[in-house]
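re: ur question from the group chat, yeah i did fold both. here u go
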Amino acid sequence: MTAPLEAAARRDLYALTARLFAAEVDVALYRALAVQEALGLIDAELYAMGEERALEALAVEFCRLFIGPQPPCVPYASAHRGEALLDTATAVHEFLCDHVLPWVPAYCEQVAAATALGFYRTTARLVAALLAEEEPSGNASIRPE
């Protein structure tokens, strides 16, 4: 991601990565991602497994990373920050600076280091790249006016 993304594309990528970190990949999502080569989420390793084995590998890795019994990548802050809708650029900026940017970039590094599959490594790197655009020196579209 070298050029700043349009607001709608950024929104869609946040929604996708939130979904990927929130629940196991199902058949419909896997198939949709398999034809989205630009994101690189379904890599050669997963593709070579075939759909059924890839879905099983993704499910096992999701549970290992995020559920447990002792998951290495528990997103604690996300359990406490989803209740308010953010409707202004100032609120979004404050939310990102106060509740997301302090911990999510390091969390993405943790996920990338802990995962055995390129899928979650690429997802973590995608989130990190999106957030890098949101840093105060990054994308001006979310900064207060």
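okk and heres the other one u asked abt
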Amino acid sequence: MKRLLALPILLIAFGLPTTVSAAEEFTTFEGFTASNQPPAGYQPYKAATVFNIATTTAKPISNSQEMVNYSLTLGTPSPGNNTEQPADKHPVFYASTTDPQYKIKLEEPWGENSIQGVTIRIPKYATGAEGGTDHHMSVIEQDGTEYDFWKVLEKVDGSPGTLRASWGGKGSYTGVANGVSPTSGATAAGFMLGSGLIRYPEIAAATATSYETISHGIFLVIKNARKGHIAPAVHDDGAGPEEAKVPYEGQRFALMNTAGTAPMSKSEIESVTSKPWQRAVLSAFARYGGIDGDKGNSGFYWATESATMYTAAGLANPWKTYGEAHSLPLFEGHYVYKLIEGSLTLTWWKEHLKAITVTE
């Protein structure tokens, strides 16, 4: 795992506090808090885990074009536009040794789960993602243990309190990104909630000439999935058409040259957009690719952290602040991070996005 220094100048520029108390710094995992997030270039989980494997050995699968054409036409437009809204995204909270304790109560009758009845520390302000239906929440304990929850229902204070959620699982923020159990977890494919998320510090740090700020692959959400899954997924919720063009959860994708012989180069990325945040995302798609981890209603889109992890702590939504500062387009009052605009056309995506295999 990369250990990098935080970038306080970026936090100043976008309205976030730049320091944490000495107590917080030594009682949370690596000193991370709502106001002191992992910096740009930070790579969660171990280096050899699925989202951290580079695409240098990537090769398109035999029916790559058919699968890409199908996946990119499930939503309009696609790849999905991301707004600064927190709905149905993944908030990650860092627990302190002084945070209150809550006993986990999982509601679904899906068998045994190793976190059922476990008591953990959770920041008092932590909550599931606002809006949407999944209400995900991830909590990183001081030792790096990651507890993930799907459909957080209620958090009741007490001694200890109770956290009610439909289901969940655990892993390690310094371990593998595809969970530790084929029967638990908070995402369809079994990936940890912290994996593959594009984080605000990674976007804020990007400039027109220095934009390789995302040092990991991207968690992808695709509207349909075939029943079954392929590695690195450990389970699935696939129920889509049983056709070869429909991806399994666990399918990898990457941006490559038109021939599919190499990851897309910096010069190719720079020729299609001048926006730093777009270059950062495209570069991650080229260098690490993305992995289908869940189904959604938006066709084919890339996952970001949830603004809930900031706003629940009383901080401004930095995704909204960035959108305003950079004059991003608005849709229904929310700033939109668009990956289809200008030269980034649907035709361009169909030419350069490949469904791939990677030799690990």
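fwiw on the second one: Residues 39-85+196-357 form one domain. Confidence is low (pLDDT under 50) at residues 1-15, 17-25. idk if thats what u expected
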